[in-house]
Amino acid sequence: MQIADNHVVTLHYTVKTQDGDIIDESQSTEPLAFIQGSNFMIAGLEDALYGKQKSEKFEITVEPEQAYGHRQDALVQAVPASMFEGMDIEVGMSFRATTDQGEQSVIIIDKTDEHVTVDGNHPLSSLTLTFDVSIEDVREASAEELEHGHVHGAGGHDH
Ligand SMILES: [Zn+2]
User: Fold this and answer.
1) What is the Å distance from ligand 1's center to 12 Cα?
2) Which terms in the Gene Ontology molecular function aspect does this entry carry (predicted)?
3) What is the pLDDT at residue 104?
4) Does any domain span residue 114?
């Protein structure tokens, strides 16, 4: 079965920077399972998966435009420290915040008595990434999985 929209793809991956640093890999845990065409995967990798089959292995290098985008200075904001009153915050902490762009993950990059500076850029923004991919399984998504928008069973939701 060739990968197409609404197929459940299960794969192992290793993702590296251009310097060869391994950012993440799935081999030491569970393979990743997702519904093709649901925008779960970064665009560059999802595009490369179409037409591939179980047991195929490939490597692909993805530019930031097709991965996590470019850093945007506008996503770095200083907010009044009073907004964090009573919270024990430190530089390096990340949390979910509601911003003009919707809900996103932000990381605290600086704090003074008056201001806390948060950065909403994805940690992998502006990076060209190389993925080593091994396709473990391809199957049709069930009607229930399509309705929920996520995979059930191994590598997916258990409910
Ligand atoms: Zn579900």
Assistant:
1) 22
2) peptidyl-prolyl cis-trans isomerase activity
3) 79
4) yes
